Amino acid sequence: MMRRILILTLALLMVFTAGCGGRPGHEDTAPAPAAEPTASPEPTPEPMTVDFEGKKVIIDESLPLSDFTDEDFVREENGRIKCLRDDVTAVYGIDVSAWQEDVDWQKVAADGMEFAMLRLGRRNSEAGDHAFDAYFEKNYAGARAAGLKVGCYFYSSAITVQEAFEDAEAVLKVLNGRPLDLPVAFDWEVGNRDTSRNANVDGRVITRMADKFCERIQQAGYESVIYLNLYLSYFKYEISISQKYGLWFAGYREWPDLAYRFFMWQYSNEGRVSGINGNVDMDIMFHFAS
Predict the structure, then answer these.
(1) pLDDT beneath 50: ranges in the chain
(2) How many CB atoms lie within 10 A of CB 111?
(3) What range does the domain containing 116 cover?
């Protein structure tokens, strides 16, 4: 009798368990949701680069960049380059030094030139001493009298920040507070690489020298800019300095191919302008629509 009761009890228990959907030794669980598909990671964008002298140069895209292309310019029959952009006001001018000797500034103005950058002086690239341009005073007076806007530049071969500061002080002494319409440019260049005192200056030092020169010029109430070419832009200067000072770019091609934004382009050192005997540097100054 006892055995029948036990068998009956087990049978009832098995029916009850099956009716509840349970299984001995396991918990009831809902089916796991389908896994979300894993998104592929975004590919890292390739940095912007330009080719210069067989080397790839990475461009700092956090800085203001130039958007000029070769379609924005045309060379006219007289050899001058004209900007075709509607959103850019282009102003045409020259830069001169004692090499041009006596300049007839009235004829220069009549030939369409609207501004002039005048060499004020230089630091000798071999001896390291200062020399002032013998024609600066005459050029300053003549260009202003002819109605041209005037700025100036100092050709530097400084090798220390202190020397760059001395260059700025020398410029300010000559200017003596007189007005300028355009900036004072720090024109640091290497002369003959076999004899120049500044042939092997580190780019970080060049950048600090430019900063010190321009800073001192601005403290005196003038604007300041840095004159450079592609080599100095890509291999020497810490180009982030362009966020502090404007760039005057020298590049003798059909269009200004510097990747970074600049305010003036020296496009030739073989220009011809009425009132000047021989060649002269040709420049375009840009005003961009906001």
Answers:
(1) 1-29
(2) 17
(3) 49-72+89-288
